[in-house]
Amino acid sequence: MTQNIGIIGLGSIGLPIAQNIMGKGFAVHGYRRSTMSAFAAAGGRPASSPKVLAETCDVIVTVLPDLAAVEEAICGQNGILVAGRKGLTIIELSTLPLSGKTALAEKLAAAGCTMMDCPISGVPQMIADRNGILFVSGDKAVFEREKSVFEAISDKVFYLGKFGDGTKMKFIANSLVSIHILAAAEALALGVKAGLGRDLMVKVLSPSAATSLQFQVRAPLMMQKKYEPVLAATSILSHDVPMFTQFADELGCEVPLLRVCEDYYKRALGTPWADKDVAAIIEIVAKANGMEI
Fold it and tell me: Which CATH number describes the domain made up of 168-288?
């Protein structure tokens, strides 16, 4: 069994993943461009570069904010490929355009390494509680060989099939998340404008047939205007939803609700709400209706 696991990206998602893996008895070596003090305090072993991780570990997990960051970690001046090792497994957890992730997988394959496409779904607390959903796709034999690593990341691991199916499933999942959050914001703004009590709406609608997980999590935040601490920033969906609509365009699939989401999340960019929790999207809905929340 692989004992030394590398992880690149130790932010609000990567750090709890590293702690989960350590909790299963693995030695975890990590790298991020900023401070790694919290990682070290948790028992992690900081590394000076992705290259050093590739020299030390047979399996490396990447969980980074965008394609450019993943490209730098793999192909950069001190990236994984510079180490020149064959047989490495890269477990890629980020939500990225599928074409970009596929191109990186091909570069790794040419160097004798394997990338697994495994986006993870869940807010930081879900990840820490081992309830994040891991959408695994890629070489089935690699999945079986490194199954203990996948199961160290989360208790909810689903093998979906060929490379890319994990990203496709994450796009579908986050499309629903995006729609549910905006729907909650729209409904609550309508209720406020109609004169209904804020706490009363949360209390009555949360257990009703109208509910969703996103309503249950974010309706209280919306009604309290409590947008910190940030579970997931509005800017993340502003960045991600266009990926989902482009994916739909490539398939020739009509997605009218996603189009509305794309418009509203884009409106949040450049506002004070962009870096707040995505519950703040209700502020954009309120503004469109000429009202205050």
Answer: 1.10.1040.10
